Known about the structure:
Elements: H1 3-41, H2 49-62, H3 69-76
Amino acid sequence: MGYEEEIKVLRDRINEIDAQLVPLFEARMRAVDEVAAVKQKYGMPVYDAAREAAVIEKALGLLQDASYADSLRKLSVADEHQPPSAAHPHQFPAIR
Length: 96
């Protein structure tokens, strides 16, 4: 098997995984929307830094390969130029 064939097999595997991840991500975001709605209904702040940190730590604990920890953190935490949580609109409505 040559380079092109080998890369195609690996990229096809990535595409299959992405096809599974995207619906899970959307389901998670819908749940986040529901949490935000309940918090708004009761006049509570939507963003909770302590909860976000706990969720990230729990996710890190689920990793079987700790070498992916930095990549997982990058998925979960925005960089210095964005608000936390990848700027979910319910947490930061002014940036919608």
